[in-house]
Structures are given as C-alpha cells and as structure tokens.
Amino acid sequence: MRSQHFPMSKGAFDRMPKKLGWKHEYWDGQAHISPRWQSVTVTLAVQPHPVRTSYTIRAVTTEDEPQLVAGYIAAFEDSFDFCDWELAKIHAAAREDVRKMLSGQRGRLLPASCLALDPHAATQEEQIMGAALITHSEGHLPLLDIVFVAPQWHRQGVATALLATVSNAMFAAGMPTLESHYMLGNAESRAWHQHFGFVEEPDLLLAKTYYHHAQYELHRREDLGDLLVSEREKLRAERDHWQARVDELEQLAHQLGMEAVMPSLRRP
Ligand SMILES: CC(C)(COP(=O)(O)OP(=O)(O)OC[C@H]1O[C@@H](n2cnc3c(N)ncnc32)[C@H](O)[C@@H]1OP(=O)(O)O)[C@@H](O)C(=O)NCCC(=O)NCCS
Fold first, then answer.
1. Do 109 and 207 fall into the same domain?
2. pTM assigned to the model
C-alpha cells in the first residue's frame, strides 16, 4: 500500500470525502494522502465460542517460525500498517516480530496462541492460512499481539475461527479480558475487531478524531447541496454523538487524569 499524491484543483480537494486514519493535505496543486498512524486500543470480554472448520487449528510452537514469517509477510505486505515500506524492511520486521513473540521478548507467549493450516497445500510455507498470537506482560492484560490471515483466505471466517479458539482457551484458563491494538486507517482490521465484539477503550484523541471526521462530512455534504433530510439528520446525530463523547471524556480526564482517557499512557 502506498500514500497517494495526485494533481487536482483545491475546489475538488475540498469536496473529497476523507478516509479515517489518513492525512489529507493539499499543496503545489496536488492532493497528498498519507497514513496518520493513529492507534486504537480495544478490549474483548472473553466468552466461549463454537469453532466449526474443515481445516486444522492448533497451538503455535517455536518450530512454526518459518511458516509464521511467511504468513505474516503475505498478510501484511500490502496492508495499511506497512504503507510506504520497502519490501526488504517488511521482511526484516516480520522476522524480528515473530522471533521476539516466540522467544518471549514481547511478553510470555500464551498457550492460547494458535494457527490455521490448509491440509491441501503443496508446500509447508503455503500451508499457513493465518495465526493469532497472544502475549502477556506482567501487570497488563493478555494482548492479541498479532492476528493475520493470508490474502487468499480473507473473508472466509479464518480470523474469526482463530479468535474463537483463543477465546475458548482463555475462558478455560480463567482469563476474562483480551486487549488488542490496530491502526485506525487499517479498515479491514477495524471492521473485523468490531465484528468480533472488541470494544474501544476510552480515548479522548480518538473521540476528537471521530468528531472532526463527522463534522467535516456534514459540512462537505451540506456544501455539495445533495443531502436528503434523513441524511442530514443522521450526519448531525453522528456529529452530536461524538461531541457528547468528547465532553464526557474531557470531564473524565479532569476527574481522574489523562491516563484515564489515553490508552497509550497505560502501555508497557
Ligand atoms: C483483519 C483480518 C485478520 C481479517 O481476517 P479474515 O479471516 O478475512 O476475517 P473474517 O473472515 O473472520 O471476517 C469476519 C467479519 O469481519 C469483518 N471483516 C473482515 N474483513 C473485512 C474487510 N476487509 N472489510 C469489511 N469487513 C471485514 C466482516 O464483518 C466479516 O464478516 P463477513 O465476511 O461475513 O462480512 C485480515 O483482513 C488480515 O489478515 N489483514 C491483514 C493483516 C492485518 O491487518 N491484521 C490485523 C492487524 S491489527
């Protein structure tokens, strides 16, 4: 995935919809659209889930390192998280992240960590469909450190089956909450986390981002003059919802301090 730089008039730029998690800038007669690198922290109330698959899901072992690196690269090389990265650097990051997770350098790797394997694959590297690795550092919640699915398996319930397996193992081990982070601009990760039931932690900066996004979209559509009454009401309701959320979180920050409304201040 690459940032975009393309010529357009300032008027056309001002009428463009903005994508959440991306910077939209204008200079020298060009639109410049690049990642904002804003992270979202979410938690999941762990519950048992049914797992029905025709493929294998099993616990991760240190022997799986080469497969995990191959799967990581396939899943992330065109993702928002590595937007504008050179391929060689993505490969190096994959090797380092997987090595650190498997060796406990990012917290203890929990036995709930699992991977999905295609029993019909020709080679071992093609076998990996996806993986979910859970690490746990002292004094913090268990973390979904990485979840990925190889592109050819997307939208077939693989990540859902992996997380259902993780949830069942954590539930059995008496672990009630799982934390995860994703980039706001990673639309598929955001949609998937929401679909599985992860809930955003109180985050003032994020609430302000949603508020500005909703406000911009309302003004943009009003300027275009193509709004139906019901659409205007919906956009106003969204803007007002985020304004109320910002007010609520500012009050919380006043009472309890910024740590209560900034998840990044609570990380290891
Ligand atoms: C995010 C990711 C793990 C999802 O894996 P997946 O196996 O395709 O997800 P599932 O099939 O279990 O999706 C379940 C639901 O999540 C939502 N969802 C998943 N991917 C989506 C997408 N690209 N767009 C919109 N909704 C999506 C949908 O509601 C989907 O249900 P549906 O297919 O019935 O509509 C996968 O896209 C991926 O590996 N991306 C690259 C790596 C990455 O970004 N990992 C997360 C980093 S935090």
1. no
2. 0.94
